[in-house]
Design brief:
Length: 218
């Protein structure tokens, strides 16, 4: 069984890390359930294990936290749905690449419920959308924006962290970092794309699509 948690007010990042540690410990010693936690954070930046100092453009803008997950710098804040996914990967084949693929697929199918055609891009982490309404890139290819980030940590085949989907955050807050260390591309949100859905609607879609993607993969 998967336990679903939902926080109605922004959760301080250190509190979230502590709760994830507690939950993962429970999964490892079989005293607690696998858990998906839906929440928002106050505005902040997190640094993954591959973060480069040069990519923190405005170090004094928001508090910066060491995330202890894979990846580089990312932003979290109000209007962004974060889903922390604490699962026993022994039930999903003990394959980290496949687990990341499942997280991506979860996001892609969730966004598809709102008519958003999002997908993976080779060599670029996260989930992306093409922006024909924006000028082409330096190499003439269509502009693309990132709409969701993915970053995970694995301990003895139990997962930490997870995904974040931009529903309606302040996109200007991304100006203080190079998101995930990827240059030349922008970030977007559902509202920026003209999809005026509520956080509750996103949560409902996430719940439905999780069952489709993860429960059928066991």
């Amino acid at each position: 069984m998967i336990r679903w948690l939902h926080s109605d007010t922004p959760v301080p990042y250190p509190d979230a890390l502590a709760r994830m540690e507690e939950t993962v410990a429970g999964i490892l010693d079989q005293s607690g359930p696998q858990t998906v936690w839906l929440l928002e954070h106050p505005p902040l930046y997190t640094a993954g294990t591959s973060a480069k100092a040069a990519d923190l453009v405005a170090p004094d803008r928001f508090e910066v936290f060491e995330a202890r997950r894979g990846g580089e710098y990312t932003y979290h804040g109000p209007g962004q749905r974060v889903a922390y996914v604490m699962l026993d990967l022994a039930k999903y084949g003990r394959d980290v690449r496949r687990f990341v693929w499942l997280l991506e697929e979860w996001v892609i199918q969730t966004l598809a419920e709102f008519g958003v055609d999002a997908g993976r891009r080779k060599g670029r982490v996260g989930v992306w959308v093409t922006r024909p309404d924006k000028p082409a890139l330096f190499d003439g290819s269509p502009a693309e924006d990132k709409i969701a980030a993915i970053g995970v940590r694995i301990r003895r085949w139990v997962s930490f962290h997870g995904i974040s989907i931009n529903v309606n955050p302040d996109l200007a807050h991304y100006d203080g970092i190079v998101p995930c260390g990827i240059h030349h591309y922008g970030v977007t949100s559902l509202h920026d794309l003209g999809v005026r859905v509520s956080m509750r609607e996103v949560d409902e879609a996430l719940t439905r699509c999780f069952a489709t993607v993860f429960e059928r993969s066991t």
